[in-house]
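re: ur msg from earlier - yeah i can do the S-adenosylmethionine complex, just paste it... oh wait u already did. ok heres what im feeding in:
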Amino acid sequence: MRATESLELVGVGLANVAWVTTRTGIELLRFGRSSWWWRLRWALLRTWVGQTPIGVVRREGPASGLSEEDLVYGETLPGTAFDLLEALEVEPRDIVVDLGCGRGVFPLVAGLAFQARAVGLEVLEGFVTRGRRAARLLGLEGVDFQQGDFRKAPLPQGTVYFLAGTCLEPSSWAAVTRNLADATPPKARAASLSQSLPSAEWEDLGCREMAFSWGKATVFLHRRRPSPRRARSASQAHARSKGSTDPSA
Ligand SMILES: C[S@@+](CC[C@H](N)C(=O)[O-])C[C@H]1O[C@@H](n2cnc3c(N)ncnc32)[C@H](O)[C@@H]1O
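and the outut:
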């Protein structure tokens, strides 16, 4: 690597440290009185002492068979996870699923701050074992971490989904969105990062700019439309109950 490239990398690294430190300061002002925020930071510190997410990706990524694009690591900041879960109107009866959960900030905040059940699905084992350890430390019995590939069906059952698919390869994006459409019940909510989910299956609830570990990104909010098959059988049942002679019914 040339000296200029190394210098550029150091510059990017320093800029990122400055960004994350600033955002942590902003979160401290917002959530400094909330115990969930401190407990989450403590659990992440304990489970990740001496380790980094990039280290897990470097060690385990090559054997996973996934492309470099699919394994680009970035994280949802705790305050952003909180704002997103609030925007998705998460309640204790919800089951929140993070597809590709990394360190599990999103499911852990769902359990800690919203008392929801949650599942973090992740392909790399190092994230799954540490996620489980963090949930155990926090006493979150309803938060689970599962090792699996979101390109392969079936996905965990949930009522609220999060997909941080910013860097995903087009074929991985196509596979996970197809699986998501198959897994979700009508009215399920979903947030997807940087790309909107297919409009045939998902109603658009708007988008917003939010802060992530690498900078700002657009999050698209959605509600699941009834699938055409389900909608058709519902309207047929309705027509039958009214004695309709409509041939399409
Ligand atoms: C950009 S990170 C996002 C982490 C987390 N969702 C967050 O927002 O904090 C994407 C994560 O998805 C995982 N991943 C990538 N491809 C996957 C796949 N096919 N199945 C399951 N996890 C995958 C990566 O290992 C990585 O931890």
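cool cool. The pocket of S-adenosylmethionine is lined by residues 66, 70-71, 73-76, 98, 100-102, 105-106, 121-124, 127, 149-151, 164, 172 (CB under 6 Å). ping me if u need the other ligands too
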